[in-house]
Amino acid sequence: MDARLANTWRLTVNEKNFIKTALLSEIRIDGRKPFEFRNFIINFGREDGLTEVQLGQTRVMAIVTAKLVQPYQDRPNEGTLSIYTEFSPMADPSFEIGRPGESAIELGRIIDRGLRESKAVDTESLCIIAGKLVWALRIDLHILDNGGNLVDAANIAALAALMTFRRPECSLGGEDGQEVTIHPPEMREPLPLIVHHLPIAITFGFFIDESIMVIDPTHNEEAVMAGRMIATVNANGDICAIQKAGGEGVSQRVIMRCLKLATTKAVDITKQIKEAVEAYNSERALQKIKCKSTYAGTNEENRNQSVDSKGISELAGKYMERLKLVSRECCVSPNNNEVETKSLRSGTDGINFTSGPLSWDPYSKGVDPEFLKVSLASQGLSTPNKKKESSGEEKPSGTEREGPYDDVNPKSSAINTSRIEIQTKGQKTLKDAVKPKNKRKKKGSSII
Amino acid sequence: MEYVSPEGLRLDGRRPMEMRQLRAEIGTVAKADGSAVFEMGNTKVIAAVYGPREVQNRSQQISDQALVRCEYSMANFSTGDRLRKPKGDRRSTEISLVIRQTMEACILTHLMPRSQIDIFVQVLQADGGTRSACINAATLALADAGIPMRDIVTSCSAGYLNSAPLLDLNYIEDSAGGPDVTVAILPKLDKVTLLQMDAKLPVDIFENVMGLAIEGCKAVSNYIKEVLLGNTKQLEYRRGL
Amino acid sequence: MRGLQLPLSQTQRIRLQRAFEKLQSLSSKANSDASVTVADTIPVNYEDTFLKGHGTMDLNGELVATVCGVVERVNKLVYVRALRARYKPEVGDIVIGRVVEVAQKRWRLEINFSQDAVLMLSSMNMPDGIQRRRTALDELNMRSIFEENDVVCAEVRNFQHDGSLQLQARNQKYGKLEKGQLLIIDPYLVKKSKQHFHHLEQFGVDLILGRNGFIWIGEHVEARDSMVVDQANSSEQSPVLEESNQAYTPLEMRQTICRIANAVRVLSTLGFNVDADLIMETVELSTSLTIDIHDMLGSEFHVLVAEMEAERRSLTTKRKR
């Protein structure tokens, strides 16, 4: 309401009717089925607690920071968690700079209710001195691009950020035990937060006829829908929060059906988030080892680890230090062949990084058709190779077409996706660096 | 802390499935087109409706329907400690948005194009369930203003403490940290328009609690209809022929 | 407060209660049964064909009310008459409005409707009385005819396609209203009658009952020609001089106007229909009891008026029987 109507993006009448008619036959305009969630990618940043989630065309960034404050008077031994949202005008022309508008505040409060009131994060462990000093966590959510369903994307980003955030360790000392020393991360390993469960937000959109319901509406569908309900559930079957603010009335039966549906979806999404976070954590641990080893000044370990020439491993290591970015792509539907993931090795040494392109994404621009042909050809080359070598891998590895995407995708500015794969202990992994052309040739030769 | 005693009485002496006392009054703000005061126990809320009238901000005019605006504010003296910021804080903005979308769903806005309907709700005394009381008061005020509606909207809250579903929580029960479910329904159509919940609750227990809240809403709707009918009859016979 | 918010003593309260009860018993039973609230089903014989009018809606095959009011049936038309709603205009209604904006070739008037009404320059008589095309000069001089916050009396001409109203003031009796008081009451209290302009001879006061609930009580003005004369004069003279040129309203006249206005206020607070006869009766009651003008708004007078009304209505019903 505070957004000026002149700036609101409006759908034409034709488009609205088309969307509605398509939904009557259970077809959505982006090809999904009504109860299908979009694929999402979680990118982690250089620091702990920085994530970016890409859900279709929606991009949300979450940053977790902590500082020491005095606790609230009525809760002296609990830390605090506060959520701030930033709806940047670059995401949508109807967002305005300055104070957050109604939708920004609503989003913040929905996520706040889901995380804080359901006690997802253990706040008592954030207490240092009861009544005097506690950790205050602050989650900042920045909306970078509005492609519909901001709440779900922001929620996933916040959860991923919380799980990867590390707070500095502090110890009490001094004569009366009141002196607090905060250890910098170089001295002592920062501690992760205790997250009891992951509340996942699932948005349902209702249309004029009550029987039509979709999950994860896109921007177009949001302009057409008559009502929406956001159910925050966790994988254990608990409902953490529900928000249905007006709009089309629905019967009780429909609501219960939605909740059951949400629970099943939450299980999938929780699994993916956990996988992504684990991958990041293991990569991070590996990074720590590498740091120490390079610090010690030996490259032997590096060499041992890489089967290929040391140049590549050094390159890999340098890329690790320089870029320090990991991208995880999570598949939702097993049908999606273009998008593949690598399963994580139990040992932390083997880390595979792949991101297949979302080839169904209609919004990617500027993909050179030649590139596409070349990459398609290379995919044909690599996949049979991979099938031969990969033993324990569940799915055939994808190809690196990320290189052109890196150049092409303007959105991944600060956060690049690194496609580094390290071969360790005889495991066959793809190596890919940012410069695809060079590496593509080496791909064939790196196989042993 | 025990919220339900072994005999089955709550802190204020009610049974778990019992609502607080309701009281409604129509026509409290003389200048407004429609106004009402609604009390649920100790929670007291006043609502005033202006409209349909000319849109004040031409750029926001919608050519085929009425623009609905809503503002929720809590009086400084409504809670125990004096409130620092009665409106403009995040909670008030969210509740304004929620009330607006709830009422917008039931007002027949296409009958009043290019006009504006303002709903102002103020909490005079807050003792839990302010959101529900606000929606009930707004419904009464809209009906008083003669604005055509699809159906009345009634609202009630319920919770779950000490393994018992409780209807119509007051402030102490609300701040106990247990789940709080606020529901608003369209009684004639038997549809749920507003549903808000916080804190964790398993699905099956949630179904019970939501069912209880809906029952509470129906009781409120009976009362509201009674009040409105009485008011209409009174106006009619006074007017004469 | 809209309702009676007067400090009533115990006896006054009882008397008022009795008067209202009498009124209630007098009101036709059919009416009280016909009251509906929002989402009440309207009892209709679905076998017969009927037309759905205002205030009704079709819900799952049954007829449901969308406002609180009284169900009216006129031949085959079934509609719900909302009581306290904004003014519902009909073509040919006399309305009084206040100018809120002077726009291009039109004035915008606030008339207690969902949108502002429009009075086109071409729907207004020119000061010199000649029927001619409005020139650009006329447009520039619009402000000399009506300015912001002027009270204007006009007639509803038609509805525009977007739902807004168009007014016209081509008659002599329409136009700017001066030297008087404007009262705002609920539109449903003013019924449509043959005459809306009342000239109360004994007081020398004009009473205009606008259908939108705006009531004008002012000093009697003979004809609108005075406006023509004024225009010719005022173009040369300064506004200060103009005021002094106009006749000064004597104190008595002002008091009479106030008395009548208070009578209207009392009637509207009690919720009674406002028409000229009733106003006259109320004024006579107050003068006969020599009640001070400001005492008219006191509790005692309210109770008296209620009793008088109850009496009157019982008399009329008896007469009907």
UniProtKB/TrEMBL annotation, chain A:
Residues 376-448 are annotated as: Disordered. Its main location: cytoplasm. InterPro entries: ExoRNase_PH_dom1 (IPR001247), ExoRNase_PH_dom2 (IPR015847), ExoRNase_PH_dom2_sf (IPR036345), Exosome_comp_Rrp42_subfam (IPR050590), PNPase/RNase_PH_dom_sf (IPR027408), Ribosomal_Su5_D2-typ_SF (IPR020568), Rrp45 (IPR033100). Residues 36-168, 197-263 form the Exoribonuclease phosphorolytic domain. Residues 386-404 have a biased composition (Basic and acidic residues). One of its GO terms (biological process) is U4 snRNA 3'-end processing. One of its GO terms (cellular component) is nuclear exosome (RNase complex). It is found in: Cytoplasm; Nucleus. Residues 436-448 have a biased composition (Basic residues). It comes from the Eukaryota. Residues 410-427 have a biased composition (Polar residues). CDD domains: RNase_PH_RRP45. GO terms for molecular function: mRNA 3'-UTR AU-rich region binding. Keywords: Cytoplasm, Nucleus, RNA-binding. The keyword RNA-binding applies. Belongs to the RNase PH family. PANTHER family: EXOSOME COMPLEX COMPONENT RRP45A-LIKE, EXOSOME COMPLEX EXONUCLEASE RIBOSOMAL RNA PROCESSING PROTEIN. This is Protein ECERIFERUM 7. It comes from Durio zibethinus (Durian). The lineage of its organism: Eukaryota, Viridiplantae, Streptophyta, Embryophyta, Tracheophyta. The gene is LOC111294585.
TrEMBL record, chain B:
InterPro entries: ExoRNase_PH_dom1 (IPR001247), ExoRNase_PH_dom2 (IPR015847), ExoRNase_PH_dom2_sf (IPR036345), PNPase/RNase_PH_dom_sf (IPR027408), Ribosomal_Su5_D2-typ_SF (IPR020568), RNase_PH (IPR050080). It is found in: Cytoplasm; Nucleus, Nucleolus. SUPFAM superfamilies: Ribonuclease PH domain 2-like, Ribosomal protein S5 domain 2-like. The keyword Cytoplasm applies. Pfam families: RNase_PH, RNase_PH_C. One of its GO terms (cellular component) is nucleolus. GO terms for biological process: nuclear mRNA surveillance; poly(A)-dependent snoRNA 3'-end processing; rRNA catabolic process; U4 snRNA 3'-end processing. It comes from the Eukaryota. Its main location: cytoplasm. Keywords: Cytoplasm, Exosome. Residues 18-148, 151-215 form the Exoribonuclease phosphorolytic domain. One of its GO terms (molecular function) is RNA binding. Belongs to the RNase PH family. This is Exosome complex component RRP41 homolog.
From TrEMBL, chain C:
One of its GO terms (biological process) is U4 snRNA 3'-end processing. Residues 90-170 form the S1 motif domain. This is Exosome complex component RRP4 homolog isoform X1. It is found in: Nucleus. It comes from the Eukaryota. Belongs to the RRP4 family. GO terms for molecular function: RNA binding. Keywords: Exosome, Nucleus, RNA-binding, rRNA processing. Its main location: nucleus. InterPro entries: Exosome_RNA_bind1/RRP40/RRP4, KH_dom_type_1, KH_dom_type_1_sf, NA-bd_OB-fold, S1_domain, S1_RRP4. One of its GO terms (cellular component) is cytoplasmic exosome (RNase complex).
